[in-house]
Automatic annotation (TrEMBL):
Catalysed reactions, as listed in the record: AMP + ATP = 2 ADP
Protein's name in the database: Adenylate kinase
Cited function: Catalyzes the reversible transfer of the terminal phosphate group between ATP and AMP. Plays an important role in cellular energy homeostasis and in adenine nucleotide metabolism.
Residue segments, region NMP: 30-59
Gene that this polypeptide is encoded by: adk
The record's note on its domains: Consists of three domains, a large central CORE domain and two small peripheral domains, NMPbind and LID, which undergo movements during catalysis. The LID domain closes over the site of phosphoryl transfer upon ATP binding. Assembling and dissambling the active center during each catalytic cycle provides an effective means to prevent ATP hydrolysis.
Amino acid sequence: MNLLIMGLPGAGKGTQAAKIVEEFNVIHISTGDMFRAAMANKTEMGLLAKSYIDKGDLVPDEVTNGIVKERLAQADVKEKGFLLDGYPRTIDQAHALDAALKELGQKLDGVINIDVQPDSLVERLSGRIINKKTGETFHKLFNPPKGNYDENEYYQREDDKPETVKRRLDVNIAQGQPILEHYRNLGLVRDIEGNQDISDVFAEIKEAIVKL
């Protein structure tokens, strides 16, 4: 079973990815882990990626695509299947993935898209507050400080502020739409209602995967 998981920041992708891996015994392939492993193992693409990272440059698409292809060609992935997480991030990467899978004699069985309305994600992601004295982290909605707390005693990091979160989501939506459209045209996308309890989200995902 070869799967791809998609969803906006805050949609619960990481939580659900871990559950899918445990339930279906597939190999979890996340971009960060893949880069670290390729560099540690000194693969051809890993060394190339390191040369860019060491200079503080962005790793170009062809290197990222190469690292993904290297990982997909490994024996554990061929044996168990995979769950790709955090890749592809652009439509060009999606086309590169299609080509790599074809060359490796593999195919994508499904794309799990955790769908949550951006407005509720802004609320979810911008609720984090930090106590100025203790550094303790709370969430205005899901984990507020006890009692009637004084808001002046707390602050928000710049990247947690609603306007910053909204900008980040807008960028992710713009990048993600063409990828989703591409996979929809191939009949691979399964939309999952992400604005419900974690266990209910997973029940829906599990049902969708079993039907694939």
